[in-house]
Amino acid sequence: MASMRESDTGLWLHNKLGATDELWAPPSIASLLTAAVIDNIRLCFHGLSSAVKLKLLLGTLHLPRRTVDEMKGALTEIIQLASLDSDPWVLMVADILKSFPDSGALNLDLEEQNPNVQDILGELREKVNECEASAMLPLECQYLNKNALTTLAGPLTPPVKHFQLKRKPKSATLRAELLQKSTETAQQLKRSAGVPFHAKGRGLLRKMDTTSKAATRGGGSGKARPSAADRVLPCGLGGSSALPRRDLAGPGRPGFSVRSSNGPPASLGAGAPLALSAWPGRGLVHRRGSERAVACCRGPAPRPRPPLQPGRNLSLTREQMFAAQEMFKTANKVTRPEKALILGFMAGSRENPCQEQGDVIQIKLSEHTEDLPKSDGQGSTTMLVDTVFEMNYATGQWTRFKKYKPMANVS
User: Do the domain assignments include residue 11?
Assistant: First the structure.
């Protein structure tokens, strides 16, 4: 009957603790080690495998202190049987637990006394030296205090830096953009405050809006009709008047006379119509009382102005859009009207707004300095480099090129 009980206990222990994938005794074993089970284990301990013996000995550490005091005799006998085992690991664990049932403390002074422990520790040191020290630490080390981990495991090797980010922080990027914008604004204000000059592609005039409705004499609204003076005057860019406003209304101009009078106006030639001033930016002249302004045209017979051609819907291709973005990215001299002129030309517009400059128009995109080596190979010289965008309205071709000027020649 006792042998039957011993075999059943041994089989039960092998089922519970015989797995080789887990070498540590789980804390749940404490609920299974009752007084009756410990008594049966004492009788069948010699027939258990080494793995089961180790897990059983380590499982006694999970028992409450009161249970250890109740089963002190049986536990002491099991530890004595383990100290006579042939397995070196079972012998070492038994020596560590020798004082546990009596005092609850572990016996750790073994290295100088037991040669078996010395051999096992020597083998462990060889294995640990072959691999990284941090890999042999338990998983709980990541939750320990940093000082405690350093005290237990020693200083850890710092991780290897494989690469380093070179991107500047966002604040530095924003600061650089703000400084660049402020510099460009100051340069534009400095250019606008200086003496005006006519650069190629600049000084574009807006077209006069001829579709807006104007008030008629009777109070109704109708389309503004071009006057005789507008038909006779030479037209500038975009259909607007080429003469300044002060020249159009000036009293010293021979072609026009302005008079305020209560009497009838001066006699005009037959067929010469009267017209109110309708230049851009000014409202229509309304009659107030008997005062009115009359413009007399003494020029040749008026010629009808050709009708304006409806504008085309122009669009850029994907490649042209990328090329324009790349071109304007470093452009620090081009203005907004010049950008619009360049984009319109790239999209297919062939209406030259500056016909007095010819078919070829050049627009300066950027200006910077470069250090170029001298022709003799000794030293370098600083050159002022202008990037120019050239449009040919005759052929429809455009190109970019650079102009180099020595800094000494730049005033």
Answer: yes
